[in-house]
Amino acid sequence: MGTSIVDELERDMAPEVAQAFVQLATEYLAGTRDVAQRVTSSQSPAALAQRFAEPLPRTGRSVEQILARLRTDVIAESNHLYHPRYVGHQVSAPLPAAVWTESLIGALNQSVAVFEMSPAATVIETQVIRWMCELAGYGPGAGGTLTSGGTEATQTALLAARAVALPNAWAEGVGPNPPVVVYGEHAHYAVSRAVGALGLGVNHAVRVPSRDHCMDVRAMRETLDGLAAEGRAVMAVVATAGSTATGSFDDLEAIGTLCEARGLWLHVDGAHGASALLSATHRHRLTGLRRAQSIAWDPHKMMLLPLSAGAVLVRDERRLEGAFAQQAPYLFHGAAGEAERRWDQGVRSAQCSRRADVLKLWVALQRYGADGIGALYDRLCEVARGMHDEIAQRPQLEAMHEPESNILCFRWVGDGASGDAVLDAQNRELRERYNASGHGWITATELDGRRVLRVTIMNPRTTVAHCREIVDALIAMGEAIAAG
Description:
There is one protein chain. Helices cover 43% and strands 12% of the residues. By secondary structure, it is of the alpha/beta class. The strands form three sheets. Strands 1-9-8-7-6-2-3 form a seven-stranded mixed sheet, with helices on both faces. It has a four-stranded antiparallel sheet with strand order 10-11-13-12. Strands 4-5 form a two-stranded antiparallel ribbon. A hairpin with a 7-residue loop joins strand 10 (397-399) and strand 11.
């Protein structure tokens, strides 16, 4: 009788097979130290699709064949986030100990929705959430749950806010005149997406203009006064701590004080910036965070965890449980409102089948400590400041703002003789040409109506010297573009 699939499973549990995969990962990480290596794939989507266009495998292949394919077809054609000149999107070069924890998470395969399906992980998640709540300045009644990221966290928080504003909405809907959500001009699209998904309608999302890329508190007050005069109820106000475009922090103390005075639910989207709570240098940017009813926080951003690991925190955990007015006696045991807190996280989460991502967060805190991760936060921000200073010395480039975190927007201006429309086109081409070169990788956005270049320092290997190399290359390419 030939080898059965069960025999193959047992063989793949052997240490040497696991070591082969680990060896592949460590080779990759070591290779990204080579600054001569391309930062990203040179292939077009069509070319890559052709490489993977093959019939469904009906029989298995050897581990050696698969590892070879991973090396040549997957790793080689991926974005190399640990390359020191990758300064692109808000996706981290992840902490090594958390990376290695991923295999254990997969092996255990716990579903952290129900205690009986994940005893240790459920308790660990509760403890980690408690630590995060304490950092945010919340009291013992606070709580929360891990999420897939900031988008789910914000939607979950606004669902809790809806349950307070419209207690019957789960059963009866939001009605013909739903309340509005007030948010800043530079808020993440997760806010308007949540407003639409919760049935309020995006026409009930009211945007407040910004001042210096932060929500203008005076304009916010005027907006709230206008809504009150019109008799329109406000379900929630959303402030941003670490905006996607510029990494800017809204004035949480002023916004929180105003919301408290008016009895309004304040949600803070701290997906990017809440990790400043770990920083001795930058935590002051979150002054007033304790006034929020809910917070979105993504450890997979500035705590440098592998995707995905987000979290939603609420000042009163019962509000989160009230957001999900469902019963599932085959899973959740015990009635809502019981004296003891239920350990099941599914009563607080939109997800049911959810992997134990809390383990990599717990391991990261155990291995590097909150202070160590906070020091990494400071380092990334310092490098962004260093890049700002480099740009300030180059007349061909213009910084669009002072960096408050690890994000910086700037613009190619050349000799200053071209108009905005020409510069918009040149900045667009400059980003595309630079990324295609393989030298490094940056992003772009629109800021104040203009096309600008954008960097996010998410890699502990990146230094100011690497940023100087990026700036030099951009200037050389920009001059070539301007010369035609």
